[in-house]
Structure formats: structure tokens, C-alpha cells
From TrEMBL, chains A, B:
Coiled coil: none annotated. The gene is hrcA. The keyword Phosphoprotein does not apply. It comes from Saccharibacillus kuerlensis. Pfam families: HrcA (PF01628). InterPro entries: GAF-like_dom_sf, HrcA, HrcA_C, WH-like_DNA-bd_sf, WH_DNA-bd_sf, WHTH_transcript_rep_HrcA_IDD. Residues 104-322 form the Heat-inducible transcription repressor HrcA C-terminal domain. Keywords: Repressor, Stress response, Transcription, Transcription regulation. Belongs to the HrcA family. This is Heat-inducible transcription repressor HrcA. It comes from the Bacteria. Negative regulator of class I heat shock genes (grpE-dnaK-dnaJ and groELS operons). Prevents heat-shock induction of these operons.
Length: 342, 342
DNA sequence: CGTTAGCACTCTATTCAAATGAGTGCTAAA
DNA sequence: TTTAGCACTCATTTGAATAGAGTGCTAACG
């Protein structure tokens, strides 16, 4: 699609622009050394590249900046896969080695590393609990009216929920219920719990206990899915140092959106495994028009999957970020593996 | 300490400055109507107030702005306690009425309300678990090497922790241990748990079981205090709209500090109950020199206490914020009461 | 024919002096 | 004691001139 020379020039422009955040002119490219042509020649090529839609010109007498299409070409064909620095690799190893007790801590920690290494904002999605199963259920009365329902999943995560005790249900009723659930539903995938509750436990309760309605309501409440998977943000303030966000208004719009979990979920949502790059307007939300989001997925014992992502300006160090995410997602899978599971 | 007229003028200046964020001059005060003197007279008083340290002048030909001492006087003597708007009160009632299942949700929600009502940043500290006691303990093996320890407190909070199982400890050992702890330590205050573990349970284990060392280590790990109380932030982006933070550098320093839980803890830390106002340099951290922090405490069944706070520029709507915090802290205490507890 | 030097042109950013205007302090009069 | 008047200060705004970076085009060059 592009000639050798055009590719080289596009590459040079994107590189330069990523580094300096300023329109790059023909002269400065010529001087870089890796494109050994005169400014005039480069100018001609640049005019062509602009016509093809890979470059843009803020105004007549400025240099060129890459368009979204330009970035896309850069990412797909040009971005050199930089090897990570040794010190960064060390951080990853530490992550895997560290004695982090909970999945959430591993994720949180990974997010912090990611943000500090890249100087962008990291967004991590906890594992979908879709593929985990029930390990243990408990129903613990606190007083006459409220109880705590505790669910432990096969991956060792603990969810808890305060539920109110229906009239006429006794502590021993609840204990029986919990025992019944553990006996019958242990090992059942989380997303099938409710269905199985009605199909299997329902009859049993109806046979042995009064208060059928009340007990079912209680159990139904208790098993209510522990809301959406958690989102972990880190390095949001790195947005502040990006020159593209010197406009506080736009900055606030973006930061505000980052506080909304549903927006983030929608942003990260994808069926695809592996690494994905969404440049500028490829993102769902209009406010992220000059942002790029790069995501990778990690797995937890091959059962559950989560997403880690980096949000930054479209003028992002793609090569570095992609490499980092790739390695870190593997490191996370490794750190989470073996620690739990059947 | 200040004459009637001086008070009035100081009041007018602080009021105006809080509204407009710009140095206020003698003329504009004279025109306000509530201080019926000529600009010249007011100028004289202003000169006096400056000499006394209540006002400052950015430069010779600008109006005056309040000093920290000025704000302090305003807060202590002048700030009129504004009644809240009806719609705001309604929000509070909703908070109390809502069926929020977990303490943390109540707190989180209160923080959101607080931030959106005041347009400042809210910082809420979860209840100190200091005064809560053990309700239930459980130790649940996940596989050969790891187990989940679950602690339920008297206020219905659930803490969980993944611990590794020492060599030679069996599932039935762990079950016994858990039963023992429940039998002996239920009702014991959280902060005394470890001490009691050694003084009471220790002997028992030594008598009945092998692996004394290992079991004690396991239990000790399991009871490790669930880190610091959680901190909930809301409305951090409200900082962006404050003109005092148009300097992105300072803004970043502050926002970065807000991400550090220990800093926040130190910032909020106080033995005092009730409402506290810390103006500018009265705050621990240098970076908060032009911020004010107003805090109030709430209680959970009279047992545990937490803190809610508002962080904003020193030029803060003290009257409104103090009123809001006062009411909200009560509303929270109410919302949390009755829901749990013995 | 592809490449490059040269040059006129465009447009932004910088600089600097002058004008503006908000606000003060002081003095003298009411 | 209060206030009108006035000279003075100083940040901000304004506008014009200038500098500078970069382009597009044309003509020359190998």
C-alpha cells in the first residue's frame, strides 16, 4: 500500500511526534539520518501521505502530525517491538514471586507497576467470575433481622453480602439451608447457581421446611451475583502531564468518565483474547477521541479471564506499551496460576 | 478582639473572596450594601486588618484576600450556619432509607453524595475496627497448600485472607482450630484477638495437637489485622475546577497525594470526635498549604467510629460544608445503626 | 526522471511598548 | 470620625512589529 520510502517517512514522523508532541517538519526528518533525502523530497512525500489520509496538518505553515489512520498503520506495520529494560523485567519477576495473598492484591499491584512503568493510566478488570464455581456457602445470622451470606469461589475469592432475614426463619433453618447448598451445589459454576437453586434445592426445601417462600427469597438474595467484576485504576494523574490535556475542561471530562465503572467496563469490553489496540475514535466514547487504549487479557487457572489495559493519548508509545502489556499479562497469569484452583 | 465594623468587613471580604476567587477591593465591599461606609473608610479598616494579620495583599494595587488567620476567624466567629436546601435534605433521608447491604456501600454512597453536593473532594474513612469484636471465624482449605481465613465482625463486616497451610496440618486440624477459636474467642474485641490467641488457645493446642508451632503460625497469619481501615475518595476531579489549581504541577502533587492511603490516613487522623476544621498550613502536609480540610466523625452502633471529610481550597464554602458534614455524619450514624450490632 | 536548491508565501508565536483600569494610601475638608 | 479627591502603583490587556518554522512551487541538476 505504501512505498518503502513512504513507510520510512511515516515511521519517522510518528516516532518524532510521539516523542515531542509537536508537528514535525520535513527538515527535522531529513536531519534524523534514517531517511537520507532532502527536505524537499520529503515534503513531496508528506503531501502524498496527507492526501492518502495518513497525516494531518494543523495549519498551513506547521509540520505534519499523524492521523488516526497513520497511527493505525504505524501500529500494524511499523511499530518496532522494543525489548523491555532489564529493571522492568525484574519488577515482573517480583510480582510473580511476591506473597500476595489475594487475587485482588495481585491485580492492584500489577496496575501500579503498569502505570509507573509507562506513565500512562492503567485500567485492570478483575477476573470474570463466569467460569468459577462454588466452593463454600455460609449464612451467618448477626441479629434477629440481618445475616451475612458468604460465598467462597473455586479460585479462593470471598464475596459477602448482608441480607435481611424473613419473618419466621430461624437460625437452625439457615444452618440447614447452608448445609444443603454446600452438599448439593458445591462445584456448580457460579452463573448456574440460581438456576440450580430452583431446580434442585427448591423441591427439597418444599418437602422439609415450612416458609418455602421466605427461605427461597433468602437464598436467592444471598446468591445474587456479586455485582460487576471490579475495576482497578492506577496512574490517573499521569493524564495531567500529557500536553494534549492541558485543556482542563477536556481533562475533567476524561477523568470523570474514568470514575464511572460502567463506562470503563464498556470501554474494555471485548470478546477477544490477546492484545488489542483501539486508536482514537475507534473507542466507543466520543470523549476518548484523542486517546488510545491498549488491552491484553490474562487468565486465572485457565478458568476465568480478566483484562489489563493502558489508556493514554493517541500519541502513545505503542511499541513500549504493547510489549509491556504482553509480558505483564503473562506474568499475571503465571502469578495467579498454581496459587489457587482445584 | 475585632471591632464590630472590622468583623463586618472581614466577613464581607471572606464571603466575596469565597464566591469569586479574586482579591476584593474596598469599592466592591462598599457597594454590597451590608457595610454602609465609603470605600475610603473601608480602606482604612482594611489596612488595619492587614496589619493584624487577617488579610493579605497579593500586590500593592490589588484588593485584599483573607489570610489563614482570617479564615480561621471567619470560621470561628462569623460563618453563618446556612440551613441546607430541601433537596439536599432529601438525599440524606434517601441514604438512611436505602437498602444498602454493606457498611462499605453506605460509606461509598455517602461520599458520592457529599462530593456532588459540595463540589469538593470527599474523603471517608471506614470505621476503625478497634471497637468491634469477633463474631465468627472460619478456615477453609482450597487445595493442599492454601486456605481462606474468614473473619466476621460483630458489625457484620467480612474480612478474608488467603493463607498458606503449613506442612503436616490436615483439613480436620483446621476445622478443629476454627471450632476452638469460635468457642473461645467469639465476642472478644478485635484488637485483643492475638493476645488471647496466645494466652488461651495456645495451651489448649499444645495439649491436644501436634504441630503446635505450625498451627499457631497459621492462626496468627489468619488473624493478622485486615490492614488499615479503607479510605473512600469521591469527587477528586472537582479539584480541577478550582482556579487555585490551574497550575497543573501543584494539582498533580495534590492528586498524587490523594492516591496514597497512608497520607490520607495521616491527614484525617485525629482523636477528636465531632467537627474539625483544618485551614491551610494547619494541615500536616506542606502540599495542602492552600487547602482546607473539614472532618466529622460518625459512629457505628456506638462501637466503632469513622471519619468523613471534605477537602477543598482554603477558599472554601465553610458554612455550607460544615453544615452538610454535620448533618451527613448524623445521617450516616443513623443509617448504620440498627442494621447491625448485638 | 527522480532529486534537490532556492525562494516567495503563510501562519503562529514572541516580544515589547503603550494603554487600561482596578485598587491603594494619603491629605485635606466636611 | 468620615469621606471626597487625587496621585501613584502595578497587573493585565492590547496591538503592532518581528522572528521563525514550515510549506509549495519552480527551476536546475545529475
Amino acid at each position: 500500500m505504501l512505498s518503502e520510502r513512504q513507510s520510512m517517512i511515516l515511521n519517522a514522523i510518528v516516532d518524532d511526534y510521539i516523542r515531542c508532541a509537536e508537528p514535525v517538519g520535513s527538515r527535522s526528518i531529513s536531519k534524523r539520518g534514517d531517511v537520507a533525502f532532502s527536505p524537499a523530497t520529503i515534503r513531496n512525500e508528506m503531501a502524498d501521505l496527507e492526501e492518502l489520509g495518513f497525516l494531518e496538518q494543523p495549519h498551513t505553515s506547521a509540520g505534519r502530525i499523524p492521523s488516526n489512520k497513520g497511527y493505525r498503520y504505524y501500529v500494524d506495520h511499523l511499530a518496532p517491538l522494543k525489548p523491555l529494560k532489564a529493571e522492568d523485567l525484574k519488577l515482573f519477576k517480583q510480582l510473580a514471586a511476591e506473597k500476595l495473598s489475594a487475587v485482588e492484591e495481585v491485580i492492584q499491584h500489577a496496575g501500579t507497576i503498569l502505570a509507573s512503568m509507562t506513565n500512562y493510566t492503567s485500567i485492570l478488570l478483575g477476573p470474570e467470575k463466569f467460569n468459577t464455581s462454588l466452593r463454600h456457602f455460609q449464612l451467618l445470622p448477626l441479629n434477629e433481622t440481618t445475616a451475612v451470606a458468604i460465598i467462597v469461589t473455586s479460585t479462593g475469592e470471598v464475596e459477602n453480602k448482608t441480607v435481611s432475614i424473613p419473618q419466621g426463619v430461624s437460625a437452625s433453618d439457615m444452618e440447614q439451608m447452608a448445609n444443603l447448598l454446600n452438599a448439593r451445589l458445591a462445584g456448580v459454576p457460579m452463573h448456574r447457581l440460581k438456576a440450580r437453586l430452583y431446580s434442585e434445592i427448591g423441591q427439597e426445601i418444599q418437602r422439609h421446611a415450612e416458609h418455602y417462600e421466605e427461605l427461597m427469597k433468602l437464598l436467592d438474595d444471598s446468591l445474587a451475583r456479586g455485582k460487576d467484576p471490579k475495576v482497578f485504576l492506577s496512574g490517573t494523574t499521569n493524564m495531567l502531564i500529557q500536553p494534549e490535556f492541558k485543556d482542563i475542561g477536556k481533562l475533567k471530562t476524561v477523568l470523570d468518565l474514568l470514575e464511572e465503572t460502567p463506562t470503563l467496563m464498556r470501554l474494555l469490553n471485548s470478546e477477544q483474547r490477546g492484545i488489542q489496540v483501539r486508536i482514537g475514535s475507534e473507542n466507543v466514547h466520543q470523549a476518548f477521541a484523542n486517546c488510545s487504549l491498549i488491552t491484553a487479557t490474562y487468565s486465572l487457572e485457565g478458568e476465568a479471564f480478566g483484562t489489563i489495559g493502558i489508556l493514554g493519548p493517541t500519541r502513545m508509545e505503542y511499541a513500549k506499551v504493547i510489549g509491556t502489556l504482553d509480558l505483564l499479562s503473562r506474568a499475571m497469569s503465571r502469578a495467579l496460576a498454581g496459587r489457587y484452583g482445584a
